[in-house]
Amino acid sequence: MGRRKHVWHSNFYGIFIIGEQIRLQMQQQGLIRDRRYHLRKFKNCFVARDAIDWLLKMYHVQSRVEAVRAMQILLQNGMIHHVVDDHEFKDQNLFYRFTFDDDTYKLNKDLVSLYRGVIYYRKMKSESEVLRDFYHKGVLYSEAFYGNDAVDFIVATNGNGDRGPVVADFRDLLERNIIKHVTDDYHFSDDRLIYEFSLDFNRPCLLHDVLDMASDHKNSTTTTSSSGVEDVEERNSNPDLESLPVDMSSSLTISPAQRPSIDSAMSGLSSSPESNAADGDSFASLGQEPKSVLVRPVTVKELENTSSPYVKKTFKIQCDEMGFGFVLRGSSPCYVQTVDPLGPAAVAGMKVRQFISTVNGQNVLRMDHRQVGQLIAQQTQINVTVLVYRSDAQRM
Questions:
Q1: Model confidence over 66-103: pLDDT tens digits?
Q2: 195 φ/ψ angles, rounded to the nearest 5 degrees
Q3: Alpha-carbon distance 104 to 387, whole Å?
Q4: What is the value of pTM for the model shown?
Q5: Maximum CA pair distance of the chain?
Q6: CA distances from 34 to 28, 30, 47, 96, 110 (A)
Q7: Cβ–Cβ < 8 Å for 269, 387
Q8: In what ranges is there compositional bias, type Polar residues (predicted)?
């Protein structure tokens, strides 16, 4: 198990370092910037097709197909995502964003630790003398640091004077093999012990390299133990490394001739390629479906049970120029898959994973999302009752 964990970490970290270098390079080249689609502004995003053009120009990849495969690996590892999480990575005029640029990386514990390591490394390297060369038992260690010096510096940078959380951060970094004691003899301690970063954040990389790393990870997930029994890692422990499932039964589509189209009326974000915004940015029509946001399947019977932990909330939502601002998925019951953070639904209080109970008084629990979408598309204002898990409702 230890060897496989090391292989997984090694490849995941390698993919991360490449993704972070690509992010910084794209920022420097002006590919990542605020963009508008109709009346909506999307901060710090890039257009997939433009990014692929740049990747080819910079020799990061050898073909557009290779670029899509490599960027999809970054998406599966939680480093990029479609701005409203409606698409996998495609060679189209779609908007994507690095999760570090909108703080959504914080949903992934592995990425939280990695980015914390990057942030600490950059601060220690550029703003202090904490990182320096050490001779220890006749060996030169470059960019190493004393544990207590690092804690002093980060605490001073944070400005709250609390050493405990910073020490805990560094211990987490060591346990994840992001830093290490120079001779591997000690865990992290707020003391005069010498540590160094295990990862080379400055190593020049090509995006193409993630294809080999992802292949190595796939080959390392299943091995045979010394007892001869096949030992399979728990895939659920790292869900962001799995391929996103294709759930065509849950797609929300309506003929573009209808007013307004469902992807426009519901999410307020997608349109045909011909309907370009003023700056040339557009969203292509929906292809493969994203992974469901539901934690587990829920039945209508469970929702209707009077002793179930679900409570009702009603929202009054007025359609704007872009639609109602949410996307439905599923069937009997259907649920909220995506909410545009700037749309009318978000303003009213709607959130993802809420089950649609009624629309303008009509019970829709046994309808699929297409039927509910058609019902909503005929309206300019709706009263929607949703079923919300009780603990979530208390936080609203």
A1: 999 999 999 999 999 999 888 999 999 999 999 999 99
A2: -130, 165
A3: 25
A4: 0.54
A5: 79
A6: 14, 10, 11, 11, 27
A7: no
A8: 248-258
